[in-house]
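job 3f2a | input accepted
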Amino acid sequence: MEKIYKAWPKGVFKQLSYPEIPVFQLLRSATLQWPWRNAIIFAGMEVTYQELDQLSDRFATALADLGVKKGDRVAVHLPNCTQFAIAYYGLLKAGAVFVPMSPLLAEREFVFQLNDSGAETYIGLDILSAMPKEALPKTPVKNVILTSLADCYPPVSAPAKMLSKTPFEEGIIDFCDLLAKYPPEPPQIDFNVKEDLAHIAYTGGTTGTPKGVMLTHYNVVVNCCQFAYWFAGGDVLYEDGKLGIKRMEGDSDEDHPIGRGTEISLIVVPWFHAMGSVGYLSMQLLGGNTLVVFPRFEPTEYLQAIPKYRATVFGGAPQLFVPLVENPIFKEIDMSDIRLVASGAAPIPLYLLEAMQEKIPGVVVEAYGLTEVTMGCTSNPPSREGFRLGSVGLPMQDTEIKIVDPENYEKELPIGEVGEICVKGPQVMVGYWNKPEETAAVLKEDGWLLTGDIGKFDEDGYLYIVDRKKDMLIYKGYNVYPRDLEDVINSHPAVAQSAVVGKYDDRYGDIPIAFVQLSPGAQATEEEILEFANSQLAAYKKIRLVKILEELPASAAGKILRRELRDQAQSFEL
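job 3f2a | predicted structure (574 res):
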């Protein structure tokens, strides 16, 4: 029986007509509609949709000549830059599978991912090549392609830039040489988009060995469409190679925060992350956005770019917004063109939400997802009245979500009860690469994915994330959810953010330990915060120790690295 959502966004279809196309067709669709519009602005370089499409065609031709065949894995080990986008669409056009690799990987992780994926072609950056140079001989890689950020500088302004390019060593293939040498004549590949892989994206490995999440072309196209049409409204209309919009009667472009072929997006979310490659690359290009791309995050530069480029869209994890709101020029910056701010990866605190909503005329939207669902599966409706603080919103188009007993997946729980979140939909992965047992443990035969996240629904169908299943503490037999404790700690006026982990004790089980990061300029003692929190918590939830850190450790995607904190907590004397 179809669930009725009172707050379902107006003009958004509950089921979409997904085209069965390869991922790169999203770029080709935009090229057909907005050929001369800038697709990417990076380091002074402007690349139009037509140019990006042609350059990726050239790269696909080059890869084919290097022996890359359909199904081969190609590793991309780059920060956000124009070359990343060219490589991504080019390798997909060559029939290869995208293996994103974080530039922050340690050598052990780097070698593991290349060996596990079996990638024989590697695309890296010159200034980050010291570690790969030592590690690549331990992997199956045969083709090493390097590029330089200096390749993006116009010759006239290059002398004023900080970076310069030096010749590559013998045996290294120059990325730009490939683009110059090969014509835009990519191989003609027959795709079965529901079976052929587009991505093998490795999870963070917070609970052990990283696993490669297998995503088909259909998975990626579906999730891009779900989010694009959630924000722009309507159903997918695919004709003559172009993705358009079919609207309900009475619905119009002006009724939605995002238009087509008109938006300017600031992009700092890393493309090597699922949220980046899907939400901040392909989904953006599907709608004809111009992407102002940053290789790293510098708050002042980012804020100044908003009026400079007349930006209308930006987003990321809440950790991105904290230094923006606290920056001295935040109040001065003109944000009157901002139509949408998207938040994900972690809950957005009330003070951040209020600061953003007061500053921008548009909407702030919080969403939820994980790599195993391509990128996302829920979102708050893109309107101020549809947003609910603390909630990650409603299940998106064609997505089913249920809450089950963490110990019995077949037992669905009623509204309001806390349990494990299960997701079913066309964006759910096909499994973990070469790991059938791990796949079977989370992906059931009937299509339901056990996320490992703990949550609940309210009466109107809004989903609330309570915690990660693996982060749940058991103290004296009681289930203690760190998010519950963190919400109390974060309400202290001096606290910017916190993370609660467990110190294992043979007698009591997991003893709650809190790590706290103070707001800039704020003062508070560990004892004061401990007393403040415990005065509001049940006896079995009481925190035993508070540790104030200058900064909580976080991944490139903005997620707090709880495993690091958990390791620290084990050494504390109580």
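job 3f2a | The mean pLDDT is 92.
job 3f2a | closed
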